[in-house]
Amino acid sequence: MVLIQEGRSSLKVRQVLIVTGLSGAGKSSILRVLEDLGYEVVDNPPLHLLEALAFKAGERLAIGIDVRSRGFEAHQVVEETEKLKRLSNINLQVLYATAEPEILLRRFTATRRRHPLVTSGTILPGIEQEMALLVPLRACADFVIDTSDLPAPELRQLIETRFGSGAEEGLTVALMSFAYPAGLPREADMVFDARFLRNPHYDPDLQPMTGLDPAVVNYVKSDPAYDIFFGYLTDILNLVLPRFVEEGKKYATVAVGCSGGKHRSVTIIEELARLLPETAPVGPMMVLHRELARKGFSSWRWAVPPHMEGSHQEDI
């Protein structure tokens, strides 16, 4: 089928957000924003307590985990989070904060803070070691934020928009591409399957490219079924999104998947981000390419940014 629509249970479930990532990339700032949003925040608990925390906390819990956590081992964290994700009464997501090594080095130098993996000498080897240690966590992240060029007010704005209760800006829409083999995005309200379109992966020239490259976009759009599918897709969204607004819904995620989350789904999400703001009465709109972000190709961007009023000033 071209379209899969996931139903939502009326039962409330605990929202658990694991916040992890590279030292100096903004994890502490993210946790502070989440605390301001009403999340119960626990930073660096022993890993064996993750399940107990998830069950005993309130409705919204943010847990900070990094290399300083007692008993830290990336694969163990992945195993624990995957186990919790399988529970029907817990909606767990993993947020991974990253930044370019030279940016992290500059931040540590400016603040004169010690890197947790460096006891003496230069900081860069510690940054590179940490990046290698955290590869499994980045690979399983639901949301990757690259703070290299992200000022603190915009980081706060992003977290408030993505994980807040949705203030006065109407419906916030996240457009997400993903790969089916990596799993359905649990936060998605609507999921569309683009795997029936011709796959650029099998073209040797296009295989290393992504749906952000014009050559891939042209290839995907040349499929005779593309225009028909995209027309149906926009018709559905132009019908459903206004109904979400009428119902008072504050946040909606529209996901498009393909085999690798690299070509077809990225092309379609980018086209939706370009055209949907002209036809659907929504508020802020963000673009998330899940698989590209996990591989370091892309993070996220605003298609329609929120208002910048009242931003807090703080360092990342």
Automatic annotation (TrEMBL):
Q: Which Pfam families match?
A: PapZ_C (PF22740), RapZ-like_N (PF03668)
* Binding residues annotated for GTP, in chain numbering: 66-69
Stretches assigned to the RapZ-like N-terminal domain: 15-164
State the InterPro entries in the record: P-loop_NTPase, RapZ-like, RapZ-like_N, RapZ_C
Entry annotated with the keyword ATP-binding: yes
User: From which domain of life does this come?
Assistant: Bacteria
Q: Is Nucleotide-binding one of the keywords UniProt gives this record?
A: yes
Give any GO molecular function from the UniProt entry. Answer: GTP binding
Q: Where are the annotated coiled coils located?
A: none
Annotated residues for binding of ATP: 21-28
Which residues belong to any copy of the RapZ C-terminal domain? 172-292
Q: Which UniProt keywords apply?
A: ATP-binding, GTP-binding, Nucleotide-binding
Query: What's the protein name?
Result: RNase adapter RapZ
Q: Which organism is it from?
A: Swingsia samuiensis
